[in-house]
C-alpha cells in the first residue's frame, strides 16, 4: 500500500472525477490517493463515483478554498 497525490486544482466538474478515475487505474488495491481540488462540487461527485466503483472515502479536509479528498482504492 502506498500513498499518492493528485492535483486537480482549478478544474471544474467533471474533470476532478475524470482525473481521479484515470489515476486510480494506475494504482493497486489498498493504495491511498489524496485528491486536492478547488471545485466544491467534487465533495459530492468524487464520493459518489467512489461508491459506485467500489472505492472507499477515508475522509476530507478543507483548507481555505482547497479541498483534499482521501480515497482508498478498492478491488
Automatic annotation (TrEMBL):
The lineage of its organism: unclassified sequences, metagenomes, ecological metagenomes. InterPro entries: TusA-like, TusA-like_sf. Belongs to the sulfur carrier protein TusA family. This is UPF0033 domain-containing protein. Gene3D superfamilies: TusA-like domain. Residues 4-72 form the UPF0033 domain. Pfam families: TusA (PF01206).
